[in-house]
Amino acid sequence: MVAAMKLLVIEDDREAAAYIAKGLAESGYVVDQAFEGRDGLFMASSGGYDALIVDRMLPGMDGLSLIAALRAAEVRTPVLILSALGAVDDRVKGLRAGSDDYLVKPFAFAELLARIEALLRRGPQLQATTKLKVGNLELDLLTRTVTRQGRAIDLLPREFSLLEFLMRHAGQVVTRTMLLESVWDYHFDPQTNVIDVHISRLRQKLDKGFAHPMLQTVRGAGYRLSGEQP
Amino acid sequence: MTRFFNTNAFRLAALYFALFAASVLTLFAFFYLSTADFIERQIEATVGAEIRGLQEQYEQLGLDGLVALVRERSLNERVDNMIYVMTDPFVHEIAGNLSGWPRRTTSVKPGWITFPFKVHARNGTEIHTALGTQLILGGDRLLVARDLHDATAFRQRVLSTIAWAALISLGLGVIGGLLMTRQMLRRVESVANTTRHIIHGDLAQRIPLTGSGDEFDQLGGNLNAMLDQIERLMVGMRQVTDNIAHDLRTPLSRLRSRLEVSLLEKPNTARYAEVLRETIAEADQLLGTFNALLSIAEAEAGSRRDTATTVDLATIARNVAELYEPVADDKGLTLALAVPETLPVRGDRHLLSQAIANLLDNALKYTPTGTVSLSVEREGDAARIEVTDTGPGIPPDRREVVFDRFVRLEGSRSTPGNGLGLSLVRAVAMLHGGTVRLEDNNPGLKAIFTLPATSAVQVEPVRASDARPAA
User: Fold this and answer.
1) Helix (H, G, I), strand (E, B) or coil at B283
2) Which end of chain B has fewer CB within 10 Å, C or N?
């Protein structure tokens, strides 16, 4: 972390809020807390935060109204909703209200961390790029070709999307759930760890014949694609 | 009995009876009035004609001629019961067959009068009433009338007949209404009795049906179906609670004792970290089970029915197959796919994906070598998804049980899984108005999932793409 990122956690369950805040602080973030919807809205609209973590059910003002109010006031801070409601239509409602991501409780802290990192890095990558570059790996979105050190890598369409997602989040931890949601648009847990199999296939194509493996497994969390030598 | 009067059935019967009585009485009253008056009008016509005739005679023959005529007409015993009285200006009878001008006359309507008179009958004297009209000839007056006795007798007869008829029909109406009410009440009563038993806890009770297929039978049948469903849900719930107690309690207590035991050990950071990681993995597994249970409950509650849209089952199947294809490849299995170009169904993309994923997951998990196939085809009005494998299969008597929650067959306990996959498949099938069953694939297992296909407006030729090995 170059400059500490500022986060606001709006969560009425103080114990959960404390645990989230502590975990985020351990990971190098500066964290403020609000325990009530209206306070949260007030702090969020004036505090200059880099991202908000908002519980969906809050006293005073519910999370969705809070986000809608923020967006109406032209506050574009990325928002991640935490909710015990996990049905697909609940998720859709949350995203429609203006949030950027939706995490169902209970969640693994690694999942929360990975998603926040993804949210924070999202901003500058929004402009339309036709080429993604990580280390010596290049992905061309127009010709749909991938090369590493100039050597072409032949990928199936889904492997291409998978790699694209990983490259857009290069250097960050990406969880299996994030991949399943973003690359496959599935919101359920396959019993077998299918994502691992897809990743190991991609890894074979990507790292075979290269001394430095780019696609790493982060134990207990997910995967990371990075260009730098570890 | 007071309860009886408070019932809807009674009210209906009473209303029915009131309407019935009103129409019967109206009908009879109309009949009475028209028949009874008919004879009186005839008498009026006869008397009127007679008096007009006599007036003409008077104009032609003069008073004497008329007197002679009246005398002549009064002479004989008249079979038509005509009465003539003619008086002079001093009310002395000049001619006629009545002893003097009647004293107590009542006017009925302009020009018409009735009066009593004596009749000599076989058994003494009777008082009859006559209806007549008079002719004023200067000072003399002529009264022509006719005995009303027959008309009155007829009127009486009609009246009594009508009264009896009305009495009998109303009586029948009451009896019919009561019987109808009783019959209806008894049917409702049986429903009420059954539901009372059920409220008191005897969920096995069912409403008796007559087999006639009438509205009450339909109602009873619907209620019975509802009770079946409730009973199934209750049994399912009880079973789930038991199973959850077992399936969540076991890992929870294991988790707890692991933490406890590590606290007893000599403090060791490396050891602690390892224990914590194991604990987290265990908690994740618990959460997975919990989430799967929630998905099933959600599908069973049908809460997503309103989100159903027209989706392409073929695309859904292709995508799931694509997700699992590397898994098959890794295990050295062939994943064969036979899916048409498109197959529109009404449903929930996520749930259908998950159901197919669970079927494929199972097939891949339990098949050591050979082929797993996924096919989708239209079969009349239904879409049929088939997942086959060449694994050990499931004995016929266990093919139904495996759909229950937490059921894991002997020999499968070593493989990962929570015994909820097929339960979700069944819940999804039911939510979509479809079915799922297991059959023998000789060798292996065949899972058949059907759901209603949307009736495509134009019948498009469904082209089964060639089964291609996926790897």
Assistant:
1) helix
2) N
